[in-house]
Structures are given as C-alpha cells and as structure tokens.
Amino acid sequence: MFAQKMFAQRAFSLFELVVSLALLVILLVALSTIFTAGMGIYRHHDRGLFPYKEVRNIFTLIESDLSSVVPSIVGGTPSELFQGNVDRCRFITIDPTTHDTLGIRYFYNPDAHTLERHSTITDSSTLPIDFTNIDIIGESIAAFSITYYSGHFSGLHLTTSRTTWPSIAPIDAARSEMPKAIAISLTIIDPLYPDIQENFTRLFTIESR
C-alpha cells in the first residue's frame, strides 16, 4: 500500500502550470527577438545589393551573345546583320552551347521597367523577324541606352559613336559593316529600397564568328 502511494502519479498544481506557461512565453519572446535581430542584420547587409546582382546577370548574358556575332549571311538578297537604336538592338549570333544560329533582340520596356531578350533559331538565309522566345532578363530598370561605336581603336577609345546603327549590308559585307563596339548604360532601382539607384555602363567589343 505504501509502495503504491510512492509511485502514484501526482497532478500538476495550478501554480506549476502558470510558472511553466510563463517560462514558455519568455523563451518564445527571446527566440523571436533573436530571429528579428538576425533578419535586421541580413537586410542591412543585403541593402542595395540588388542592382549589382541584376547588372551582373544582364551584362554576362549580353557579353555571351555578342561573343559570336555573325557578320554576314549567305543568301541571294541583302540581309539584316545588325540593327539598333537607343533602346533596342538585334543581331544574329551563334549559341556557344548548341551551336545554333540565333536571331537575338534586346528590348527595353520603359513602361514595365524591364529589359527583354527576344530570340529565335534561324538559318543562314532566313531573317529573324518573328521571335519565338521572350525572356525578361532585367527588372526595376529606370533608364537604358545603347551607343554604337565605329572608327578605329585608340587604346579603349573609339573615334565615332552614334545612337543608331544601319541594318542593311551587302552579302558577305566586310567587318566594317558591323559596329566595333557598343556601350550599354542603365540605371537600376533596388525594389526593396527605392531610394537606392545605381548607374552602370559597360563597353562590349563586337566579336564576329
């Protein structure tokens, strides 16, 4: 009888339950404070990084597309080789992975503040008029412009620049029919911190296949 009393289970008192709940609340508050402080530190270090991440992805893709531009198209009529103005350009290039001939167009949409990449697979005698793929490669872009360079290199200086580039060239046109380089300038806004705007400019040399 005594042994049964020793091992009998005793119910928690109201005081013990209150103390346990109070300790649980204190623990949850402490964990919430630690989590909030950690998120604050993360946001502080991440502040303003979006424009740099975005421009790195944009410039990497453009550099890849311009690395194998096709300077001429075999065919019986004049062909569009490279065309552009201040907010868009299109050209024919070779995909470095699949080796497909691609028509590429970069287009800035000022209403949506996005940079689009249009592409389609073409062949040596077909102009890339209808682009089958549209990808948004940049967002929160407040401004975008392209400058086209020709002339002769003097160090990194090009003697002639313009904001448009002719599109029609004779068959098997010489290298001079292509721009020697293009400069892309853009302004990117951090969507989480609209007060942060970063300006970027990069010169891309045109390398023909």
Task: Compute the separation of the termini in Å.
Answer: 98 Å
Low-confidence stretches: 171-176
The rounded Rg comes to 30 Å
- Helicity level: 25-40%
Task: Tell me briefly what this model is.
The protein is α+β, with helices and mostly antiparallel strands and 209 residues long. Helix content is 27%, strand content 38%.
Plain-language structure description:
This protein has 3 helices and 11 strands. The chain is of the alpha+beta class. It has 2 domains: about 15-45; about 50-205, no CATH class. The longest helix has about 35 residues, at about 15-45. About 25% of the residues are buried. The model is unreliable at about 170-175 (pLDDT under 50).
Annotate the secondary structure layout.
Elements: H1 2-7, H2 14-46, H3 50-66, E1 79-80, E2 82-84, E3 88-94, E4 101-109, E5 114-121, E6 133-138, E7 141-154, E8 157-162, E9 168-169, E10 181-190, E11 193-205
Antiparallel strand pairs: 1-9, 2-3, 3-4, 4-5, 5-6, 7-8, 7-10, 10-11
